Amino acid sequence: MEKFISIKSGSYRLAAIIHIPDEKKVKKFPGVILCHGFSGNKAESHFIFTRLARILCRSGIVCLRFDFMGSGDSSGYFENMTLETEIMDAASTYRYLVRQPFIESGRIGILGLSMGAIPATIIASKFRLNSVCLWSPVAFPCEIRRKILTKKIKKTLDRTGSAYLSGYGLKISKKFIDSLDSIDPLSAAKNYNGYTLVIHSKDDSVIDVSHAISYYRAFHNQAQTKKLIILEKGGHTFVLEEAENKVLRETKEFFTNTLFT
To answer: Which residues contact 70 (CB under 8 A, 6 or more apart)?
Structure first.
């Protein structure tokens, strides 16, 4: 069953879809939360989140995919988004999920794509989630600033507090830029003691593969298991058929192996 829901996060409402297995004999299921990337949404590029959610659901795992505040169908404006608001949204989504009567609260996983890896890792560490999977993750938030902050945009931000990103068709705020210096996801990764999987492509032109390697090394501090998969080709969101199929297969295997044990 796929159900459209609304989750309260501060003064906002997050649009979400929850996928619940049809198995009638099972009273409680494990669950996985999907965190999309910068300017993404709950379906993500070429609907890869939708495909993953349905695959996990058929495997007996509840899957919750949602839009961060200001993205997709959620309330609020994208220009008010910061890393702090995304962490709050992910926490609100986790709290919603564990309150559901059909969820086994001790068997929760989370997945983060690109910038979504930051709230995913922090929430996994804070709430001691069972499993965390990262796709093409951002490990160094300050590099986002380097990619998008031209002299013209910086001048506009300093003058008005917000600026339009022509390549994205969206506005960002100075608060968002400032938040890139205040959050350190690798510190959270070092404190995480569950199961981990990191997947990245060598030909990712958006985020360098060194980010994935940095997460993998940070997870070595305490995580129970660490696995890093580096694909030769696939791009930032695994747009090649072979890459997409491998990522979905490996991710399904990871969550089924770690949430049903």
So the answer is: 76, 77, 78, 79, 80, 81, 85
